[in-house]
Design brief:
- By secondary structure, the chain is α/β, with parallel strands linked by helices.
- The protein has one domain: Rossmann fold (3-Layer(aba) Sandwich).
- It contains 11 helices and 5 strands.
- A 5-stranded parallel β-sheet has the order 3-2-1-4-5, sandwiched between helices.
- It is globular and about 50 Å long.
């Protein structure tokens, strides 16, 4: 039986121990307006204090409501929030790609979606380095991916796969929600249908499976065979994301 209060306390201790043992001072978190980043923010607010946190919104042809939901999180926990609009940066990059040839929308779709998380992660690490310099203490970037996403490879290589510390990567979506309830993450954020804020579709629509079913698959629970095979294919098709093959002499 999952005990959200106990698990939350363990994660908070995990963060505090890591910060103390490695002389870390602060954290930078990309705040998307969704439950994962909201819960991560709540965990860090309790662990190291809002005064040592920087939240960043990174719109890029994004839904304006996502920024409003992100601000709900920063307002509730009281940490600094900055906004870096990547729309013009993305558009400038796309103009360079247009010079390479006339590509169809379908051919560009996957590349376009994935370059946005990569621009976002570049920005988060820039802010972490900047704040480390101006505050005189080390800031690191927190990951916000959950266990269900990680299992099926629903993340971008060199984008949201990159971070310095992961606090919810071993929690299913349902467990993240339960911890969010303990942390009092704003309801509009915690119960919002997860989406990437980039493609105009929910995560589950893009994946073609429900997060709850992914959790059942990982726990070897009874599941429709067709759904089971789809999750298996997603996991196996994305194995290349988990480890970089490295030749050793």
């Amino acid at each position: 039986m999952f005990n959200a209060k106990k698990e939350k306390d363990k994660i908070v201790k995990f963060i505090r121990d890591y910060y103390e043992n490695n002389n870390i001072g602060g954290v930078v978190i990309g705040i998307s307006g969704g439950k994962d980043s909201g819960v991560v923010a709540g965990l860090f607010a309790e662990a190291i204090g809002a005064e040592n946190m920087v939240g960043v919104t990174l719109p890029c042809h994004s839904n304006e409501n996502d920024k409003k939901d992100a601000l709900r999180v920063s307002d509730y926990y009281g940490f600094e929030m900055i906004d870096i609009d990547l729309t013009d940066t993305y558009d400038t990059f796309k103009k360079q790609i247009d010079k390479l040839g006339n590509f169809s929308e379908e051919e560009l779709k996957n590349s376009d979606i994935n370059v946005k998380p990569r621009l976002r992660m570049t920005s988060l690490y820039y802010i972490a380095a900047l704040y480390s310099a101006i505050k005189g203490k080390t800031y690191i970037v927190a990951g916000t991916g959950n266990k269900c996403e990680e299992f099926v490879g629903y993340f971008t290589k060199g984008g949201d796969s990159v971070s310095d510390i992961k606090t919810i990567a071993d929690l299913t979506v349902e467990e993240v929600i339960q911890i969010g309830e303990v942390l009092n993450v704003p309801e509009e954020v915690l119960y919002k249908a997860p989406n990437d804020g980039l493609s105009g579709t929910t995560d589950e629509q893009k994946l073609g499976v429900k997060y709850n079913d992914i959790a059942k698959y990982m726990n070897n629970e009874t599941l429709d065979e067709e759904v089971k095979q789809k999750i298996k294919r997603l996991h196996e098709a994305n194995l290349h994301k988990f480890e970089i093959p490295t030749y050793r002499k």
